[in-house]
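Input chain follows. Return structure tokens only.
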Amino acid sequence: MKKAILLVCVAIVAFFAVMFVVDYDHGGFQITINNNLDKDVRHLSIEYPGGPKVITVSAHSTKHVHLVPDVHGEASINLVYETGQGKQSTAIFGYIEPGYKGEAVINIDSLKDNGELDLTIKENLDNY
């Protein structure tokens, strides 16, 4: 009987330990950037509470970024690119609060004549 109770207690502790690790690994925001251009995209900035994170994405490559924003109210996560003629800013997640998490895929498809990136963003936001 004591072995059965001990086994149940160990199983419960193991279950909660696994749940904690799984939840920890999936917290925050996972952003994937696909650069379909023939040139590197430099000085691409992801601005968020606790950021920014400045990255370079090589030509015809993919970059994975994991962010855990320091959100204390309402905020957003934005992609900012210096075009040479100004800044291009695009919302990745336009509205986040503490506890939110999500995934986004950004495809950089071409470069416009004015230097701006032609991109598409698909996001999935989990608000709790």
